[in-house]
């Protein structure tokens, strides 16, 4: 087949898969139009190895190297929706990983800060996000459990790895009326965590809401799990 025709057919197929993913997200109560639009704009296949492109829109985690994973679309959708994002928000992501969640956030706000502990994953994510044309992401390689004090406070913080407790440094770097969403709970192999939303009140106190059950790789760092 003509390579150009083949490429166009493949693009149309991925677009159809993305539309089906959006329909299944809506059936799971992910209905925020801005979240759906962002996830509809990001080509998820770009964030996984070529051999996994045909699996990119299935609702499951996929390997990205360094024994880490790209989160399943329904969890990305649920976490992004729980953040209740406005376009002017300054957002911090802990765990850049493949860069997919960062791309979804970058579709929704002016500036996204993202920290990853593996430089190999950060480099790869930066390359993909650059090729896709995202210019509103600022990256750091390091221990995200300590946050990014020089850039704080953040209106929204998303932690895409699990720890028994939410790092205090990240709660401190949350702006008044800010929201932090994170998986919290045990981290041994196959453990299940609770997806938590922390909302900082005007007086500095923090309100906690349980959002459901999830399964994440460990948040490894000084205020997370020991390496
Ligand atoms: N958001 C990612 C995506 O869209 O692909 C999913 C990331 S994966 C579930 C969790 C990521 O958190 C891994 O890449 C892991 O290396 C990273 N991570 C774990 N502990 C970290 C820490 N203390 N600081 C920064 N990144 C960390």
- What is the CATH topology classification name? Rossmann fold
C-alpha termini separation: 50 Å
Largest β-sheet summary: 7 strands, mixed
Strand content: 25-35%
What is the CATH architecture assignment? Answer: 3-Layer(aba) Sandwich
Structural class: alpha/beta
Helix content: 25-40%
Question: How many β-strand stretches?
Answer: 9
CATH superfamily: Vaccinia Virus protein VP39
**Uncertain segments:** none
Radius of gyration: 17 Å
Query: Which small-molecule species are bound to the chains here?
Result: S-adenosylmethionine
Pattern of helices and strands: HHEEHEHEHEEHEEE
Mean pLDDT: 97
Task: Give your account of this protein's structure.
- This protein has 227 residues and is α/β, with parallel strands linked by helices.
- The chain has a single domain (3-214), classed as Vaccinia Virus protein VP39 (Rossmann fold), CATH 3.40.50.150.
- Helices cover 31% and strands 25% of the residues.
- The protein has 6 helices and 9 strands; from the N terminus they run ααββαβαβαββαβββ.
- The protein has helices spanning 3-27, 33-41, 73-82, 100-108, 119-131, 168-172, and strands spanning 62-65, 68-70, 90-94, 111-116, 137-141, 154-159, 174-184, 193-200, 206-214.
- A 7-stranded mixed beta sheet has the order 5-4-3-6-7-8-9. Strands 1-2 form a two-stranded antiparallel sheet.
- Helix 2 (33-41) packs across helix 4 (100-108).
- The longest helix is centred in the first third of the chain and has 25 residues, at 3-27.
- It starts with a helix and ends in a 13-residue tail after the last strand.
- The model has no long low-confidence stretch (mean pLDDT 97).
- Residues 68-71, 94-95, 97-98, 100-101, 115-118, 121, 143-145, 160-161, 216-217, 219-221, 224 line the site of S-adenosylmethionine.
């Amino acid at each position: 087949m003509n390579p150009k025709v083949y490429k166009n057919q493949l693009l149309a197929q991925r677009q159809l898969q993305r539309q089906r993913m959006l329909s299944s997200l809506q059936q799971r109560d992910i209905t925020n139009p801005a979240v759906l639009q962002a996830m509809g704009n990001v080509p998820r296949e770009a964030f996984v190895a070529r051999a996994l492109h045909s699996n990119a829109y299935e609702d499951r985690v996929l390997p990205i190297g360094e024994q880490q994973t790209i989160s399943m679309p329904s969890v990305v959708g649920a976490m992004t929706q729980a953040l209740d994002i406005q376009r002017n928000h300054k957002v911090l992501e802990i765990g850049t990983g493949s860069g997919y969640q960062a791309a979804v956030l970058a579709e929704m706000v002016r500036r996204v800060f993202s920290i990853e502990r593996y430089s190999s994953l950060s480099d790869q994510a930066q390359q993909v996000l650059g090729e896709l044309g995202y210019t509103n992401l600022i990256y750091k390689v390091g221990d995200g459990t300590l946050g990014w004090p020089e850039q704080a406070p953040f209106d929204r913080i998303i932690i895409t790895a699990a720890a028994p407790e939410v790092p205090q440094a990240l709660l401190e770097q949350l702006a008044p009326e800010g929201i932090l969403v994170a998986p919290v709970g045990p981290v041994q192999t196959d453990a299940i965590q609770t997806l938590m939303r922390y909302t900082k009140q005007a007086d500095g106190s923090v309100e906690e809401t349980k959002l459901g059950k999830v399964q994440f790789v460990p948040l490894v760092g000084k205020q997370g799990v020991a390496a």
